[in-house]
Design goal:
The complex is a heterodimer. By secondary structure, chain A is mainly beta. Helices cover 6% and strands 35% of the residues of chain A. In chain B, strands 1-2-3-6-5 form a five-stranded mixed β-barrel. Chain B is globular. The chains are: A mainly beta, B mainly beta. Chains A and B meet through helix 1 and strand 15 of A and helix 1, strand 4, strand 6, strand 9 and strand 19 of B.
Chain lengths: 285, 363
């Protein structure tokens, strides 16, 4: 039974969560998180120890740990990359009951031969200890931007006190292969109060401070959404990590360069389209 | 704990929550992202030396403010790295950056392997280009063999001298067109140069976006017998509302098709659509026919339909002069299309069907 104290703590947790969420909207340096109060729950999230801690399944028998395209270090995960793929990677996580925030984050990268539509997917799910599905947290697909690492950030706070299995599953259809790469998986449980450390002056810094993300170091910019336990829809948001240039020590002279002068002509009368690409997305109706 | 104490705790927590929400949302309200935002991708020329100073990307000076967000996806920002930008044009015609996503300067090429050195380390001929594979290059054959005659996707870094060093190389399915993604270093009416790779441009080439040196660009091209690339579609990654040729993409149902081929006027959901010989038509998921659902991307124009002289049917041998030399059929590949979709027996939905058509190209 939920006591008022517990409820209060949940509200405090929610506040903390929103503060974390606020990382999308405020410069990263405006937040500080006591690192000692956060615990990494994922084992071998950077995959530098190979498959240690992870369970792999590949319908076509591929080794999912790969040195082909890691984001950091020398190893990462390579899902799909073939037609009719069914690849899954999972790890059980014991989420502490005392955690005020629990955040799953991971970086992913897409390569695809699809030119339109959504046919190939990677889904982040939570399973129960026995493998029963608890929730699909997020599905990304071949329509995303190719060739760029993007971060997935999901709130798992609602699962505090439970043992869950996080799973990444990629599936492709019968043609136009997509590859899903994964690296730097983290499940961070925090029991700290996030203290806004407002900048000393009242003048906001127009350029956020540096938080290099080339390493697996996490920034306090997790995006999170209050979730309904078990029932499903913990939403996920692509993070816009509030980082900034590392140019603080550089001296750069900004020179005047040629500028694009887009023509601001109004929309034309005749709607006619020239097509660089046209793709059939379905059969006859 | 007494009731009063609990109430105070609730009050404090609620106030903190409310303040946090307002604090986090206000900057966003100040600079909402709208459909009128300019989106482009380009080479970073200069990163600011101090807070508040502008960025320079693809020749554009980008002012920043407290709402500007910078995302480092894989490494630090530096001159020479690339970025995807969302910005707003200000009243004085300057640009204010809303989002800057910094990405590594990674050139991508899809094409057939023409030659490779013994042992794999050294110069490879891929899609008519010379690319350098080193001991650090990682190779994946999961999607297909990485060998002479097969198609690969290359991720490479352009060295200062203009050479391309391959960081990753993976086998892929047989493609219809060579593809190049890189930085637009020069362009004219006859050629674009993308990260040191020249692509010939002709009147038949479909040109999308607003070309500008420093922008990132994508080209779909034909590999010709002499190893050069003939551009079919070249696209500079600059998208601005109210531009001369606003980009369009939509999904709709084919209502009518031209007679005697697929080149010409289509009607898709009541819209006039012009298809030329350079248009890529993907039929891997189904065939073009009246009633089929199609995804269309292109741009809007007020110009008259293209003159009849522009796209002409090119015989298969002319469009694939190098196929027999350097690109044998991919093992396991199902038969490719040999004619425009409507009149030929085609594969069932969802089967592998990728082939070049005499009058057009089919994916």
């Amino acid at each position: 039974m939920k006591t008022p104290l517990t409820a209060s703590r949940r509200l405090l947790g929610l506040t903390l969560l929103v503060l974390c969420c606020a990382g999308r909207f405020i410069p990263a340096h405006a937040l500080s998180l006591a690192p000692a109060t956060c615990t990494e729950l994922a084992q071998n999230g950077g995959f530098e120890a190979g498959g240690l801690g992870w369970q792999q399944f590949s319908a076509q028998g591929y080794e999912l740990v790969s040195d082909f395209n890691p984001r950091t270090g020398s190893l990462g995960i390579y899902l799909a990359g073939v037609n009719n793929a069914d690849d899954r990677l999972s790890q059980p996580i014991i989420v502490p009951a005392a955690a005020l925030t629990v955040t799953l984050s991971a970086w992913w990268f897409l390569a695809t031969a699809e030119i339109a539509g959504t046919f190939d997917t990677m889904t982040v799910s939570l399973l129960g200890p026995g493998g029963a599905p608890l929730a699909d947290l997020l599905t990304v697909d071949n329509s995303a931007t190719v060739g760029i690492w993007d971060e997935i950030v999901l709130d798992l706070t609602a699962y505090a006190g439970q043992t869950v299995v996080i799973q990444f599953a990629a599936r492709t259809d019968a043609n136009n292969i997509s590859d899903f790469y994964l690296d730097d998986v983290s499940v961070m449980a925090c029991a700290a109060i996030v203290t806004p450390t407002a900048t000393a002056t009242s003048t906001p810094s127009p350029t956020p401070t540096v938080t290099p993300t080339a390493t697996a170091t996490r920034t306090a910019t997790q995006t999170a959404t209050p979730t309904a336990p078990v029932t499903a829809t913990p939403t996920a948001t692509r993070t816009a990590i509030s980082t900034a240039t590392n140019g603080a020590t550089q001296t750069v002279t900004v020179t005047s360069c040629p500028t694009v002068t887009p023509t601001a002509t109004p929309h034309k009368v005749f709607a006619r389209y020239y097509l660089p690409y046209l793709s059939i997305t379905g059969g006859s109706q | 704990m007494n009731r009063q104490s609990r109430a105070i705790r609730w009050l404090i927590a609620s106030a903190l929550l409310l303040a946090t929400v307002l604090w986090s949302v206000l900057p966003t309200l100040a600079a909402p992202q709208t459909a009128l935002d300019i989106k482009f991708s380009g080479v970073i020329t200069a990163v600011p030396a101090a807070a508040g100073e502008p960025w320079e990307i693809a020749g554009q000076i980008l002012a920043v403010n407290a709402a500007t967000r910078v995302r480092l996806t894989c490494g630090p920002a530096a001159a020479g790295t690339w970025a995807d930008v969302t910005a707003q044009r200000q009243a004085d015609d300057s640009l204010l950056a809303l989002h800057i996503a910094v990405r590594p300067p990674e050139v991508r090429v899809k094409g057939p392997v023409v030659f490779k050195p013994e042992g794999g380390i050294g110069a490879w001929g891929i899609a008519g280009q010379t690319l350098w594979v080193t001991a650090e290059t990682t190779i994946s054959q999961r999607g297909g063999p990485v060998d002479v005659g097969y198609w690969v996707e290359v991720y490479a870094v352009e060295e200062p001298a203009g050479t391309l060093t391959v960081s990753r190389l993976r086998g892929i399915e047989l493609q219809e067109d060579v593809e190049v993604f890189g930085a637009l270093q020069a362009f004219s009416e006859t050629s674009w140069r993308l990260s040191s790779i020249p692509v010939a441009v002709t009147p038949e080439t479909l040109i999308a976006g607003e070309p500008q040196v420093g922008l990132l660009a994508h080209a779909a091209a034909l590999l010709q017998a002499d190893g050069t690339l003939l551009g079919l579609v070249v696209k500079a990654l600059w998208q601005e509302p109210n531009s001369g040729r606003p980009q369009v993409q939509f999904t709709g149902t084919v209502q009518s098709l031209p007679t005697g081929g697929l080149n010409g006027h289509w009607q898709v959901d009541g819209r006039d659509v012009e298809v030329t010989a350079s248009t890529t038509i993907g039929q891997a998921k189904g065939l073009v026919e009246v009633g089929a659902q199609v995804y269309v991307t292109g741009w809007q124009t007020a110009e008259a339909p293209p003159p009849a002289a522009s796209p002409v049917c090119r015989p298969r041998s002319a469009r694939w002069p190098s196929r027999s030399r350097c690109c044998p059929a991919h093992p396991g590949a199902k038969p490719t299309s040999t004619s425009r979709g409507r009149s030929r027996p085609g594969p069932a939905m969802g089967t592998w069907a990728r082939g070049r058509l005499p009058a057009n190209r089919s994916k």
